[in-house]
Specification:
Elements lengths: L4 E6 L4 E10 L2 E6 L6 E7 L6 E5 L2 E5 L3 H19 L3
Antiparallel strand pairs: 1-2, 1-6, 2-3, 3-4, 4-5, 5-6
């Protein structure tokens, strides 16, 4: 099974793909880097609820999706799993 990847922006304007470790509407845990140089980071919703933000080694990273959009994605993926498990 392939790991889910999301695209985050860094404070310098560049973007990078990170691996999603766990995903909930109130917190997204991601892994930045690969192998022995990987670092886990928690992304929490901003106060205005328009994005998620976290810090890796003093650098801010931003996931530009709202908690409502993430929850909709989670609901959609849970529905897909339930539909694939139902007998036909």
């Amino acid at each position: 099974m392939d790991a889910e990847r999301i695209n985050v922006s860094m404070e310098n304007g560049k973007s990078m793909d990170v691996i999603v470790y766990s995903k909930r509407a109130n917190l997204i845990e991601v892994v930045v880097g690969e192998g022995v140089h990987s670092i886990k980071c928690e992304l929490a919703p901003t106060k205005n609820g328009t994005a998620y933000v976290g810090s890796v080694m003093g650098r801010e990273i931003i996931y530009k999706r709202s908690p409502a959009e993430v929850q909709a994605d989670l609901d959609r993926s849970n529905l897909d799993v339930r539909n694939s498990l139902s007998p036909r």
